[in-house]
Amino acid sequence: MSKGHIDISNSNVYVVDDELSVRESLVFMLEGYGLSVYEFCSGRAFLDSVDVSTPGCAILDSRMPELRGQDVHELLKQQNSPLSVIFLTGHGDIPMAVDALKAGAADFFQKPVDGEELFIAIKNGLAASEKRYKSQDAHRSYLSLTAREQEVLKLIVQGMKNQQMADAMCVSLRTIEVHRSNLMKKLGVNSVVDLIMRYGNSISN
């Protein structure tokens, strides 16, 4: 795979390591792959500066003062952050790697790391992060609907027409049309096809 810009809309990558030389080398290397890279000298500085509710990929050093990489990862999970996490350590072993992956890390590398392998892991992590973010955003939008709008949405996904929904809910056709218009505006979709693609699987079960 050649270097170049990746086709992921949000490519924010965060390098979190207490060693300046490591941060500088990683930033230089990853920017060569077209990534937007931001560096932090500690887990606390990272958490205090970054909006962790947005997609991206964090490369965390396992051994840092105050907050270890594992501590940062746990705090991200507690906040339900969509960020993907890749561990990079100079003191890793197989049990540590297994534990990190079980905890939901995207990958685990020991220093020094091969640039191409790290780039591929980051690219995969960014794609997974974007998918999680969209899923969370869709869920938040769904929760913004009223109970009636949620009911109409479920009937739309089931394939019902407006009159069928009106009959099923014992309301007027005009009421269904209003609910349908409002929910599509709240969900940010322009067609029934978009609606079903975004919400069909999550609410049909």
From TrEMBL:
Ranges for domain HTH luxR-type: 138-203
Pfam families from the UniProt entry: GerE (PF00196), Response_reg (PF00072)
Residues in Response regulatory domain copies: 12-126
Source organism, top-level taxon: Bacteria
Keyword list, A-Z: DNA-binding, Phosphoprotein, Transcription, Transcription regulation
GO MF term set: DNA binding
Position of the signal peptide: none
Membrane-spanning segments: none
4-aspartylphosphate sites (modified residues): 61
Any single GO BP term: regulation of DNA-templated transcription
InterPro entries the record matches: CheY-like_superfamily, Sig_transdc_resp-reg_C-effctor, Sig_transdc_resp-reg_receiver, Tscrpt_reg_LuxR_C, WH-like_DNA-bd_sf
The name this protein goes by in its record: Two component response regulator
Organism (species): Aliivibrio fischeri (strain ATCC 700601 / ES114)
